[in-house]
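Narrative progress, year one. The postdoctoral researcher (J.K.) led the effort to move from monomer predictions toward full complexes, under supervision of the PI. The following entry was the first complex the group processed end to end, covering 1181 residues in total.
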Amino acid sequence: MEKLISLSIDGVQVEVPAGTTVLEAARQAGINIPTLCYLKDINAIGACRMCVVDTGARALQAACVLPVSEGMKVRTNTPEIRKYRKALLELVLSTHDKKCLSCIRSTNCELQKLCLELGVEDGDRFAGKRNEYSVDDISPSIVRDNNKCILCRRCVAVCSQIQDVGVIGAFNRGFSTTIGSPWDLKLNDMACINCGQCIVNCPVGALYEKDETALVWSFLKDPKKHVVVQPAPAVRAALGEEFGLPMGTSVTGKMATALKRLGFDKVFDTDFAADLTIMEEANELVERVTEGGVLPMITSCSPGWIKFCETYHPDFLFNLSSCKSPHEMMGAMVKTYYARKTGIDPKDIAVVSVMPCTAKKFEADRPELSHEGLQDVDAVITTRELARMIKEAGINFNMLPDGDFDSLMGESTGAGVIFGATGGVMEAALRTAYETLTGETLEDVNFTAVRGVKGIKEASVQIGDKTVNVAVVSGTGNASKLFDMIRKGEKNYTFIEVMACPGGCVNGGGQPIVSSVVKMSCDIRVERAKALYGEDEAKPIRKSHENSEIKQLYREFLTRPGSHLAHELLHTHYTKRKLYND
Amino acid sequence: MEIYRSHVLVCGGTGCTSSGSAKVIETFENEIKAAGLDKEVKVVRTGCFGLCEAGPVVIVYPEGTFYSRVKAENVPEIVQEHLLKGRIVDHLVYAERSVKEQAGKSLEDIEFYKDQTRIALRNCGVIDPENIDEYIAFDGYKALEKALTKMTREEVIKEILDSGLRGRGGGGFPTGLKWKFAYGDGSTDVQKYVACNADEGDPGAFMDRSILEGDPHSVIEAMTIAAYAIGASEGYIYVRAEYPIAVKRLKVAISQAKEYGLLGENIFETGFNFDLRIRLGAGAFVCGEETALMTSIEGHRGEPRPRPPFPAVKGLFGKPTMLNNVETYANVPQIILKGAKWFSSIGTERSKGTKVFALGGKINNTGLVEIPMGTPLRKVIYDIGGGIPNGKAFKAVQTGGPSGGCIPAEHIDVPIEYDSLIEIGSMMGSGGMIVMDEDNCMVDIARFFLDFTVDESCGKCAPCRIGTRRMLEILNRIVEGKGEEGDIERLETLAETIKATALCGLGQTAPNPVLSTLKYFRHEYEAHIKEKRCPAHHCQALLQYFITDQCRGCTACARACPAGAITGVVRERHVIDQTKCLKCGACMEKCRFSAIIKK
């Protein structure tokens, strides 16, 4: 039993476990202490000083880093503290570019919200010199605008501590302090893995995705273009948040309708491609296991993870599955299988992927992900960008009737849907691998040991007479930890699933941005994953190899998993990358 | 050990080194050899004597003759006359400004030293800091031997507690208490560290540098005692890279101590091990803040981190750590040797012992002084410091550097101790003492210190990063004559906010120079803002130059004026065109008749 500490906060008596911070204890007492730099589990550095409270000590203390102590009397709301907070906020505003009307984060900005809540009257009271920065927008995924940066360092914390990438940090000091990369290099010249975790954890508009909506609009406008769209599994679990729906609402049907109303010629589903990936990946796994290939085999769906592996753990490149990621497989199938069936020249087809991910933007440009001079995917937009397009088109999302994906590559199984959550690929692969290896029917398809948001999960699965050790990792920082253990010989697995973002794609860098305040009281990874597992549960077919359109695809085109044609179109290779671009 | 009849002590501190003492030492050695005296007279390069203003300083023992401003070309005369013939070279002997007759010939007679009590500086200027034998000859490492062989760990801590020693780095936290916290439950199972803060950075302060340069072993000995007391086996000295002489002497001292078995494994054959490392700071003022210092030692960007956890619980590399400043340590061996009772008999009720100050600014005897706590400020300024040069009036003194505040003339009789200084809006600080006279503009002084903190802010917390900058912008505009109604109130709001909310001591104290000058010299701020006038006639932008009827019409000013602002007929009074005047002051410098005034 944890030791309980009792203290009073603004006269409210609370009892919390030892080690709780005053900030957390106050939330439990129904008191919201304002914060800017604090981010649960990621950044607690006491830098913005918005959360200062009076404990009777000599100086005010930052509640986000102050552990509770027995008998503590905390005051969070004195006239002085309110005055200081207002002044602090106005100081931050004096360095901010305040172009709120055209800011991508307007109405979803933590700074803006605090100004409103704390009643900032004069944004110019402490006007003075402002540092001006050029916007770094050469990365295919991430734009950094330091003119809006408030130096909370959440991006730095998530990049270095959670993701173990660490390509950004604080430079210079005092008023000249800025977040950037060594030697003023652009993000794209660093070994950034494009995961976008910096974006979804930024409280303001200093970090955002490289917008491709203009390109997509131009495809849609072009009468000669046959535009095919595919949304990833995790998109349906979060898109509704952009339209005020509760977190965890699955909006698959409305999304399909919205995509059609936007004018896409074909609305396929990346879930279908996820099932296809399982066919190829399970086959590859069985081959490696039975023919003595390189083990453990590691999944390759997450482009952030792939770049991380290529850069930071190149000794594991041969462990990576050669399978392309699902949306790339879809792109390849659209420009071959679908093109042939419909007689459309693949040159006239534009494949647009809607992804929960910013790394997919980088991935789509990889030269190896192409066929006969055509990239498999022509544009990648994030969940947020899709929401913006729907809003711009004046579509009342919440009133839309549920629609269906187009047939040929629109059918999916429960296995494909759960790709969007950490452990999902593993579970889907196990469902198929089990039946392939044993020839028996798998009765209980739920592998609950690999579900949940824990950073590193392990399971031993009995397949026939074989015990297969598997691991599931999300967050590249956890991947580094696991690979260090494997190198030391402490761990031994047959199959590993890695997702770059903590919690998997549901918490991807392209997903709707949730404020740090909400993140304090709910785990968005859990809530969004519920939508996916709910869909899986409701699907009549929950094993990829039972997908009838998948069967049709192999029957009519690819012949069998791992066939020569499958290899040509659905598999890829990897390259070791340097830490800096020349 | 050889016996010499005379010792020539030449200051090798940074001050005297920069005024040429290395050359003086070399010449002494050559001349003494040439005169055949090298078996009789020994030349010793010591640490700082304190009277830097009169450097290079040479003292000849056994007479104790105090020579000042000795140049290499003076050396043959001293060798020939004093060392060979026994005749003191009168014209090179230090002459006190405050004393009319030139009576002072030896150290004891000099006003500058008479009222000082040297504990931390006891060996500075006395021994060769690069020779451990000299330190040992002056009771060095005796305290360590006593602590390790005759005292328990608890007894050592109690001695320090009872002595009343408080941190000399600025905060004044009771040192014994710090040791006690780091001692914890007394367990030696966990890795612990002792650390020494030698990242002295206040403008004009060089107390710690002088101790490290003049008596490095005292700090090493004290750290070893502290390590024994709290149960640490490793220590770090964090010293600024800008102190090359101190670093070199520390390195020499550490290797000598290791060689003698006074550092390293099994010290004094008691089974106690202690290893000491040096870490160089890269010149950030904030790294003098304890948590930033530790972050820097760990190899990260030197930024403070929130407390709690306090270093005694979770410090360096996450382990319990005890951090003291150089001067604090320098007191420790003496306390162990002579006892807490002796130490606590010096000073006042709540401030025990002595404090070293670096006297600077508008004062005759700039240099280093060590005085008993409780000494009135007046004594330091007028007796030890020799008063204000050029007969100017004393206006204020800034203590505590950029974190401190100014003490105006009305408080000149304040006793120098921790609490009385805080009471009047300043602080002890690490020991910088900058004297200002009637020509100093207090707004500009505040601006100077704030400029320093703005430059040295690490940029982590918002109030310090942005707030100090905004304060500086306001002060800049005030001294430029562009102050606006409401600026004083804005300064006060900002100062209050930063003081209350900043993350570390640097930020929390950064507004002090503004607050204390506002408290005592508010009228100067008002004059700048409302009347566009600098009462001290210091702020260029607010000055006007005038030619009085003292003018003889020599035309020198007109010829010197780069703007062609001065006109007039030869032998008649000239006139300055205020619209053209650049306020450069060139005319005033050229005028031989004091006919040009500024106001």
